[in-house]
Amino acid sequence: TMVSLIVYVTPLLLYALVVHRKEGIEGRKIAKRLGLTSGSKPYYAWAMVLAFLGMLVARRAWQSIPASTSEQPQMAISHFAGQSLSFGRILSAVWWGMFETGLGEELLFRGLIAGWLGRRFQFWTANILQALVFTLPHTLILLVDIRLWPLAIGLPFSFGLISGWLRLKSGSVFPGWLVHGLNNVATAIASMH
Known about the structure:
Blueprint: H1 3-23, H2 27-33, H3 42-63, H4 67-70, H5 87-118, H6 123-138, H7 149-170, H8 174-190
């Protein structure tokens, strides 16, 4: 559903409203602070390479867990896991991976949080902090099965660092969104048969 995207975008809208009212900053500058710019072009090439490598890692990692675990309702991919592969389900996976989760999470974690941290701390401090914040909600996977700690901590932290690097270096959330969204899509499709 669109609920998750709305939940992720609401803090950005509140931030924009507060910054506009308190500091008198106009929309374009707020958008730049949030990474809503095209950014530096070379980082899109990096994003595609990193997305491809990430899809290989994520696919392998998710295929290694038992179907009974991936089908648990607490798992983000549960509505795809074990389903038969079809054109409609692939379109659903693209929508879910690119927009419902990928875009929303990138806007919140890289747009708002990494952007804010990046204006206050040195690059690596900001990047590590935003990756840790991004990892926190993913640790809920541990409630399903503690043996999934590499998926709950290792993958999100690594992807958080990669997407944070892309965001902080390019000035845009969009290269990281490509990595994040494509990996979510690949994970959803890999969970189908």
